[in-house]
Amino acid sequence: MHILVLSDSDSPHTIRWVNSLLEAGFSITLFTIHTPDKLLYKILNLDIHSLNVPRTNQNRSETDLYKLTYLRSLFLIKKIIKGVKPDILHAHFASSYGILGALTGFHPYIISVWGSDIYNFPEHSMIHRAIIKFNLLRADKILSTSNTMKKRIKQFTSKEIEVTPFGIDTKKFIPEKIEKKVFSSGDLVIGTIKTLEEKYGIEYLIRAFYHVKKRFPNLPLKLLIVGKGSLENKLKYLVSDLKLDNDTYFTGYINPDEISEYHKSIDIFVSVSVEDSESFGVAVLESSSCGKPVIVSNVGGLKEVVENGKTGLIVEKRNPEALAEAMEKIIMNPALGLKLGKNGRKKVEIEYEWSNSVDNMIRIYKSLISN
Fold this sequence. Notes:
- By secondary structure, the chain is an alpha/beta fold.
- It folds into two domains: 2-167 and 353-370, Rossmann fold (3-Layer(aba) Sandwich); 188-351, Glycogen Phosphorylase B (Rossmann fold), CATH 3.40.50.2000.
- It contains 14 helices and 13 strands.
- Strands 3-2-1-4-5-6-7 form a seven-stranded parallel sheet, with helices on both faces. It has a six-stranded parallel sheet with strand order 10-9-8-11-12-13, with helices on both faces.
- α3 (96-104) crosses α5, α7 packs across α12 (320-331) and α10 crosses α13.
- It starts with a strand and ends with a helix.
């Protein structure tokens, strides 16, 4: 079976889906707007086509007229379809790649909705809402990463929506004691692994860590911030202002293959996004799979992947005091942290095993071909 995938080639989620489908014996052609890094894929001769838009433009707003340049891709995609004759066209992201897929007129056509494409994009104007409705109307199958986001999608379509979680590789993300990547073995590391953007609320994590350090000055508490983004300098200035320089480490960009090692280095994982477009929480489940206690904010799909008091703690968004209190609860009660981590691991094994996610996607593909 040959799948033509429209998606950001450098997204970790795209990489995982494409690599797994290749391993399952599928033929894949990948189209991406931005200049791709082909070294991210296990099969180096993977058929990748691109408009080669510089990645310096990637963080521009969806409302920017520059997005109209995406339409230049349409001719190329139609040419690809004519050449490779795919069995299925699958667009990941309901706005940009979704409109490209919809305009090709190809069927069967799948749209996977990711988050900001359905939460933020339609709110810009009536035209944006109409675009999303049109894209979903043209799809033969609509997929959502969470039940929470499924409810949001239903505001724009009456079609059936199937939940297809990203899933976690529980053979890679395992409870395992390792030498810490950055700090000393005796340090208690509070950390996050997110893009350094406003949406992910990392400012509130830093402020909460400051409160905890003030209350427990003699404990070897450290803060690990893994990832890159446009707010990196601003967040570093905040750390400096709060005099946390000696206890905080920013890794910058890390290779996706190293992510599991950083999760294992963290003792308490925190993800306190401030927008409901945080539709799933892959990093949270990766940390749970490593047996770590997690703390999340009460937004989007984070409330779905964490059971408050059982697999982690849920706090109010934009509330560093509440977050600090949750951190303290785990710091002062190690048995609680162990319980949350153990239960979190079980939840991932039962509900979010990656191989099951791949099998589910393959089932969807086969059902569309057989119809």
